[in-house]
Design a protein that fits this description.
The protein contains 20 helices and no strands. With 409 residues, the chain is mainly alpha-helical. Helix 7 crosses helix 8, helix 11 packs parallel to helix 14 and helix 17 runs antiparallel to helix 18. It is elongated and about 75 Å long.
Length: 409
């Protein structure tokens, strides 16, 4: 492994703790992130030339803290804080955390980077940057936007947090449930984009999905008594378990009914089911992520599409629709109804969505085209699938739609 690769590996693992420790010491989230980036830049120059230090994380933290002292030295208004920092030097061999314990610094980072004052796009970018350790280039590639756009989002986010005087801390217990929802939503958005890319030439962006999964595992360790954190982790594990069978040798999508279930990741399924059992065992009833995980479990434990408990999936979607109503939930319920009771009943549900929020999405005509095909209404099905093809932004999904159109003759 080269020096630059060593830097990247250490940064991906330790960046959240480094930024968190610097934020705790300086009391300034935006400054801490800048200081950590400066330490990273110095490591990229120094380590390839002089070798990787014995304690890489301690080295990065030391450099970051020295940069903080330089900043405070230049700012006479913060002389007292500089004095406090100067009296508490960090040696390269020291570590400011127990390596066997994830402390509140990482949790505070998650809550700050997912603060409700930020837009969803800003939360995603900031979370991937400061908690996930991804570079602006990596985030830009993941979401198919220019690097400058990502950098602007991060800069605006830090300025917004500063203007709103958001403290670097884990919120009080009374505020935690509402704020936790924002953290969970960001991880869900990141994973969703990774598992089924909205646009581009790849169906699955595995690295992005895996990053969301890694952060969800961290979050569960930080808030072990929160059932929805376990519910989200279960959903991500159970969904990612099917990744190995979702693509053919040429990278083309493989539909659920055609997947080789022997290729599904059984270890991920076990982990997902254990997380779901934990969420269920709390006794408060499953939340939105837990219900989606229960649906994913139905798929993962079934030997085939035909043997899937579609009636249970319908019931779970009905519960999800009451708890977190959305057109996508209704559309997915229609798909389950089609499998459980036939396409005619499902089509009436889909028809009710025609003038709603999914009007400009390829999902609605895709499902409607499939239902019309099953009903033998080929001409109408062709019209719907052609509309879906025009609206779809992902080239791999467009290939599937072309195959369906070709099958209509």
């Amino acid at each position: 492994m080269t020096g630059r690769e060593e830097v990247a590996a250490v940064w991906r693992i330790e960046s959240a703790r480094i930024v968190g420790a610097l934020a705790r010491y300086t009391g300034d989230f935006a400054l801490a992130e800048d200081l950590a980036q400066e330490a990273l830049a110095e490591a990229l120059v120094t380590w390839p030339r002089e070798g990787v230090p014995r304690n890489p994380a301690g080295w990065l933290l030391t450099v970051g803290k020295r940069r903080a002292i330089d900043v405070f030295r230049r700012n006479s208004a913060l002389e007292e804080r500089y004095s406090v920092l100067a009296r508490e030097p960090v040696e390269p061999g020291d570590v400011l955390w127990d390596p066997d314990r994830i402390d509140d610094d990482v949790l505070a980072l998650m809550f700050v980077s997912c603060h409700p004052v930020l837009s969803r796009e800003a939360r995603v970018a900031l979370t991937l940057r400061v908690v996930g350790g991804l570079t602006s280039d990596e985030i830009a590639r993941a979401f198919l936007v220019p690097t400058a756009t990502v950098q602007a989002r991060i800069t605006r986010a830090k300025k917004t947090l500063e203007a709103a005087r958001v403290p670097f801390e884990v919120p009080p217990a009374a505020e935690r449930p509402a704020r936790l929802g924002s953290v969970l939503n960001v991880l869900y958005v990141i994973f969703t984009e990774g598992s089924t890319a909205a646009s581009g030439s790849e169906l699955i962006r595995v690295e992005l999905a895996e990053e969301a999964l890694r952060l969800a595992r961290v979050l569960v360790r930080l808030v072990p008594d929160e059932p929805e954190a376990h519910g989200l982790l279960a959903l991500l594990e159970l969904t990612a378990a099917r990744f190995p069978a979702r693509l053919g040798p040429d990278g083309e999508p493989v539909l659920l009914e055609d997947q080789d279930r022997r290729r599904w990741d059984r270890a991920a399924i076990r982990r997902g089911r254990a997380a779901l059992a934990h969420a269920t065992g709390v006794g408060r009833g499953l939340g939105a992520y837990g219900l989606q995980a229960a649906i994913a479990e139905c798929h993962d434990v079934a030997a085939s599409v035909e043997e899937t408990d579609w009636e249970r999936i319908v019931l779970l979607y009905e519960a999800l629709g009451r708890l977190a109503p959305s057109p996508v939930v209704t559309l997915n319920r229609a798909v389950a109804v089609a499998m459980a009771r036939g396409p005619r009943e499902a089509l009436s549900i889909v028809d009710g969505l025609e003038d709603g929020a999914l009007k400009g999405s390829h999902l609605l005509p895709t499902v409607r085209g499939e239902l019309l095909t099953r009903l033998g209404r080929a001409a109408e099905a062709r019209e719907e699938l052609e509309r879906a093809l025009r609206l779809c932004g992902n080239e791999r999904e467009r290939t599937v739609l072309r195959r369906k159109l070709s099958a209509l003759g």
